[in-house]
Amino acid sequence: MRRMSWFNITSLTLGFAFLYLPMLILIIFSFNESKLVTVWAGFSTKWYGELLSNGAFLDAAWVTLKVAFLSSTMATVLGTMAAIVMVRSGRFAGRTLFSGMIYAPMVMPEVITGLSLLLLFISLNVDRGVMTIVLAHTTFSMCYVSVVVSSRLVSFDQSLEEAALDLGCSPFQAFRLVTLPIIAPAVISGWLLAFTLSLDDLVIASFTAGPSATTLPMKIWSSVRLGVSPEINALSTLMILIVTVGVVGASLINKRNVVRQRREEAAAAKLA
Amino acid sequence: MRRLLIAIPFVWLLALFIVPFLIVFKISLSDLAVAIPPYTPTLDPADGWAGFKHFLSQLDWENYVWLTEDALYWKAYLSSLKIAVISTLLTLLVGYPIAYGMARAPEEWRAMLFMLVILPFWTSFLIRVYSWMGILSQEGYLNQFLLWIGAINEPLVILNTNIAVYIGIVYTYLPFMILPIYAALEKLDISLLEAAEDLGCSRFSAFWLVTVPLSKQGIVAGSFLVFIPTIGEFVIPSLLGGSRTLMIGKVLWEEFFSNRDWPVASAVAVVLLLILIIPIVLFQRNEQKQREAGK
């Protein structure tokens, strides 16, 4: 192994400084006493207090969590089904269209997705609110879930499923008892991905939410457009903290599972 | 059972992805009207076949003609393309050295570095863009710092210009550029570089003649992953750009929410999609080539 050159060390240091410094500054200044966000006036947690007593933010956070939970759960079910269809179903009429519909929403500009869904809801005379945002989020995030799950399905040994069928399982039992436990880590990461995509979305939610529902990104948007605010800094800090704990935790659990799975597979290989 | 498995996701996507798009296309052929919904004609199934024919005869390409006549739209499409091209190149320039450094880092560091690149991607996009507002504004941290070290005498105007838009795009899309390049560089066999150096290449020409061509697929994939979403970007030009920053995503939003001209907004969306089809198809081909090479 070559030692790392100075060039590599410098580019990594500068690169990660660029990625993390803006968020670090945001976190530091969320503890700023002053209302003037760019001037430091001493340590204080008062903006967190103001944030937590601001009913509009709490309501928006609750709506966002509801939308994210419902849409990611529905997207996980639909996306897993779509992944099984893509990997296992062989040829059927409309397969090209199907795979096109799985990939297209991921590259579609959000403004177009949002606009088209809004026009659909309007022409069907649907009341817009939490449910329409859930439908919109489910549609684009199921595509991400299906990509994550199908990459796991491709690599897994189909003969295990066939063995279960030979031993008298119904196809559904074989799926529940054999396939699902094996693809579970991918299904869980798909769910997490769908959940964060939904938490994060501003554009599609703005189009599809009626006047009755406001999500947290929409609330942040309307106050950020007027300029930097200490309350938003505090909110950002909380969100960064939650995501960091979640991602680091998930990757540790995942790492443990992978190690365990490898060990089990190695043991099974020895027996065979 | 199998049919049901195919049918459920199929019908879902048909109803919530294809049909909405057909509606957009239909409304792009309609006229603006002072009514609810604010366009005409509307289709009423009760009128039967004659009503449908009348409905068809009312549709026209007027909104598309309007898009070619009004300079605002042309300029917005062109400036979106320009901003997307420049920021893709900038992201490549910033991202390549980072990916390179990661691929050359000791093996036990790599998982950690990989996670550090992914982590911002899970953090709210809106917040990451917002974090630059405080840095780039007139009395922001960057200007304070530069004034303090004496590099400038007067604060620079960066926020609400295209420069701020470039910074925002490079910052938020950097992980999309780093990851594919890192994946390509990590597979690269170091002995090839040693061979090139043994054969008399300087370090730089070994990099240029061996490393860069072998990471081409990663560079292409990363560039598309930045370029495609940037064209329709709305949040970054609205928060960091100024009134003179023209991007088509922002124009579409304003056409819809401020001018309430749904037919023109729909026509803008259809043209944007037509422009995007070319890079999307090229990107898919590149991915397929990569998959076939991997087999």
TrEMBL record, chain A:
Major location (coarse): membrane
UniProt protein name: Inner membrane ABC transporter permease protein YdcV
Domain ABC transmembrane type-1, chain residue ranges per copy: 61-253
Segments crossing the lipid bilayer: 12-31, 67-88, 100-124, 130-154, 174-194, 232-253
Compartments where found: Cell membrane
Membrane association type: Multi-pass membrane protein
Alphabetic keyword roster: Cell membrane, Membrane, Transmembrane, Transmembrane helix, Transport
Superkingdom assignment: Bacteria
GO terms (BP aspect): transmembrane transport
Organism: Shimia marina
GO cellular component, one term: plasma membrane
InterPro entries: Bact_Polyamine_Transport, MetI-like, MetI-like_sf
Pfam families cross-referenced by the UniProt entry: BPD_transp_1 (PF00528)
Similarity comment text for this entry: Belongs to the binding-protein-dependent transport system permease family. CysTW subfamily.
UniProtKB/TrEMBL annotation, chain B:
Similarity annotation: Belongs to the binding-protein-dependent transport system permease family. CysTW subfamily.
Residue span, ABC transmembrane type-1 domain: 77-283
Cellular localization per UniProt: Cell membrane
Source organism per UniProt: Shimia marina
Gene behind the chain: potH_3
Alphabetical list of Gene3D superfamilies matching this protein: MetI-like
Main location: membrane
Pfam families, per database record: BPD_transp_1
SUPFAM superfamilies in UniProt: MetI-like
Domain of life the protein comes from: Bacteria
Keyword field: Cell membrane, Membrane, Transmembrane, Transmembrane helix, Transport
Name of this protein: Putrescine transport system permease protein PotH
